[in-house]
Design goal:
Blueprint: E1 5-10, H1 19-33, E2 41-46, E3 49-50, E4 59-61, E5 79-83, E6 86-90, E7 103-108, E8 114-121, E9 124-131, E10 137-142, E11 149-150, E12 156-159, E13 165-168, E14 175-176, E15 178-179, E16 187-193, E17 199-206, E18 209-218, E19 225-233, E20 240-244, E21 249-255, E22 261-267, E23 273-275, E24 287-289, E25 297-300, E26 303-308, E27 311-316, E28 319-323
Parallel strand pairs: 1-2, 15-19
Antiparallel strand pairs: 2-3, 2-4, 5-6, 5-28, 7-8, 8-9, 9-10, 11-12, 12-13, 13-14, 16-17, 17-18, 18-19, 20-21, 21-22, 22-23, 24-25, 25-26, 26-27
Length: 326
């Protein structure tokens, strides 16, 4: 509008969402529209009338919701890795809850208060979630489970061997996520939630091959959904491993011309691609880690490497690196 207020008119169904969901919806809309220099405030409407709930006003200045800043570094520095079935760290302290054995992957929320791990037990794997200072509880079992990704509300998100995706809160039942658009029917192999929790990067496989998509996370209904997925790295890149390096930058490993693997940083719209290949990078990469203000990490089955300038140096014999909030 001429006064710098952008009106966002939602359907009447928006009045059915709770305060917590309205907060996240507001943050997503404001952080998206504040990128336009002409927008100084956002007004949320539902079927033409102001949408307000639990102290969340309909008119919101463009500088609202600073704690949802997608480029804010995690409060917990350093990375967690796995070596010999145990959690180890580089520049961080391993939380008390992650000191078991048989681990395949481990991570913690951005504020360090919650942790999640995937553990092999016989022929199956288990996802355990709980407080960093306490005892983790088994929340999900499947033949295989992807490394967890944490949201800002302490929910862990994983995919199982069937490709089904689940949101797992600290308490309460796991909820299956609805996959829409091109993700419907694909097998999800890896997930990384953006740091503000409104977008998700997905490595998905289909008969066409493996691609990297970024979708919007819709929490407005009774069931979480990934909507409007967009291809960021096509099947020709054969991406593997995924992490958010910033508000709009995603890191992944890709197939290289020499038959090995390389690593790239791609913008969330897919338009900008930066090759991070450099001296010292191993050829068999299968995992990455990144976060705002942190070094990019890449791993193969023998260890983890860190990008310093344009050169890669071996960091640890451990694998599966993950930054807090990843």
């Amino acid at each position: 509008s001429t006064d710098g207020v952008a009106d966002v008119d939602l359907s009447a169904g928006a009045r059915q969402i709770g305060t917590a969901q309205l907060v996240r919806l507001s943050a997503q809309v404001v952080w998206t529209l504040r990128q336009l220099s002409s927008v100084r405030a956002v007004r949320l409407l539902a079927n033409g009338t102001p949408l307000e709930s639990g102290g969340v006003a309909s008119l919101q200045p463009a500088q609202s919701w600073p704690h949802f800043d997608p480029a804010t570094p995690p409060a917990i520095r350093g990375a967690l890795l796995v070596h010999g079935g145990r959690a180890v760290s580089v520049g961080a302290t391993v939380p008390a809850s992650l000191r078991g054995t048989g681990l395949r992957s481990a991570t913690q929320s951005a504020d360090g208060s919650e942790t999640a791990e995937v553990r092999r037990t016989g022929a199956r794997e288990e996802l355990l979630v709980g407080a960093a200072s306490g005892r983790l509880r088994v929340r999900l079992r499947a033949p295989t489970i992807t490394a967890p990704t944490f949201g800002p509300n302490h929910q862990a998100i994983v995919a199982t061997s069937t490709g089904a995706v689940y949101v797992v809160p600290p308490n309460g039942p796991a909820q299956r996520v609805r996959l829409t658009g091109r993700l419907d029917g694909q097998t999800v192999r890896a997930l990384a939630l953006s740091h503000e929790g409104t977008r998700i990067a997905v490595i998905a496989a289909s008969p066409r091959g493996v691609e990297l998509d970024i979708a919007a996370v819709d929490t407005a209904g009774r069931r979480v959904a990934f909507r409007k997925p967009r291809v960021v790295l096509p099947v020709t890149a054969s991406p593997s491993g995924i992490a958010w390096a910033g508000a709009t930058e995603v890191v992944s490993t890709v197939s290289a011309r020499n038959g090995g693997r390389s690593i790239v940083e791609v913008s969330s719209d897919g338009f900008r691609l930066l090759d991070l290949f450099g001296p010292g990078l191993p050829a068999d990469l299968d995992a990455v880690a990144a976060a705002p203000g942190q070094h990019v990490l890449a791993a193969d089955p023998s260890g983890t490497w860190q990008l310093s300038g344009r050169r890669w140096r071996r960091l640890s014999a451990a694998t599966g690196p993950a930054y807090a909030g990843a």
